Amino acid sequence: MKKILVTGAVGQIGSELTMELRRIYGNDNVVAGGNRTKPGKKLLESGPFEICDCTKMEQVNEVVKKHEIDTIYHLAAILSAVAEAKPGLAWDVNINRLYNILEAAREYKCAVMVPSSIGAFGPTTPLDDTPQDTIQRPTSMYGVTKVSGELLCDYYYKRFDVDTRGLRYPGIISNETLPGGGTTDYAVEIFYEAIKTRKYTCPLGAGTFLDMMYMPDAIKGAIELMEADPSKLKHRNAFNVTAMSFDPEILAAEVKKHIPDFTMDYDVDPVKQGIADSWPNNMDDSAARAEWGWKPEYTLPVMVKDMIEVLSKKLLD
């Protein structure tokens, strides 16, 4: 039976991933690791929780030893917009803490899942059907840390035989946890405002296409990758994965099918727009499909319908 540690377990992806891992592997076998943010009742009461400050290697080692961890999902990270405002913090969290996790994995023979991002690409990368293997010259601190993280994980696999694996996530849309400072946050915020006020001011301009994914697919992809036969993985640490690509106008039109009086205008944030313009319009995820069978379940219409139904109950009941 796997013994799993999820770092960043209180975050947007981590909170939902932890619960799904507990459903699959058993509550006692999945340790939620957090630092400053207080965990919710569901997360705290369903299984073990440990304070795990990834800046402190001895604390990471202690948790891994105590629970005999063999698999780590390392999700603690600073997202794109916050990283531009606080580049030093972004490097510390996204790279220095990753180094400590990889060192613990090397010492205690753990497998490690580390998410990368579409942010690992830059303006010189092909924007359409972005290849699995292509130019990676990001112009944001977030992107710099993501490329560095991919390379660091590759190094630990090749140099120390640490079983590292990872996905290049697109924007993640969730009906559970609010976003935390990412460039694609608008694709979650729009639902809250549509339901509450029937209007939304978008920080990205019309025509800004970005890859997106509904949270259930993001969680499914991470778990399926960690369960995949390692002998079939050629890329390991940076699989392109996506489910849909749209711009704000397309998303707003889909929302209006369910909330006809919804309106949207624009107040473009130059920082977020600059980051978004350097990211792919859509990625080619054929390597993930071929090497471990990646296949998303949610299309844009299905995702929008589910988001509105779930959030309407949460916000209006």
Tell me the fraction of residues in β-strands, as a range. Answer: 5-15%
CATH class of the largest domain: Alpha Beta
- What's the arrangement of strands in the largest beta sheet? 3-2-1-4-5-7
* Oligomeric state as shown: single chain
Q: In the CATH hierarchy, what is the superfamily of the largest domain?
A: NAD(P)-binding Rossmann-like Domain
The CATH architecture of the largest domain can be given as: 3-Layer(aba) Sandwich
Q: Which structural class should the secondary elements be placed in?
A: alpha/beta
- The fold-level CATH name of the largest domain is Rossmann fold
User: What shape does the CA trace take?
Assistant: globular
Write up what this structure looks like.
The chain is α/β, with parallel strands linked by helices and 317 residues long. The protein contains 12 helices and 14 strands. The protein has 2 domains: 195 residues, NAD(P)-binding Rossmann-like Domain (Rossmann fold), CATH 3.40.50.720; 94 residues, UDP-galactose 4-epimerase, domain 1 (Alpha-Beta Complex). Strands 3-2-1-4-5-7 form a 6-stranded parallel sheet, sandwiched between helices. Helix 3 packs across helix 5. It is globular. The model has no long low-confidence stretch (mean pLDDT 94).
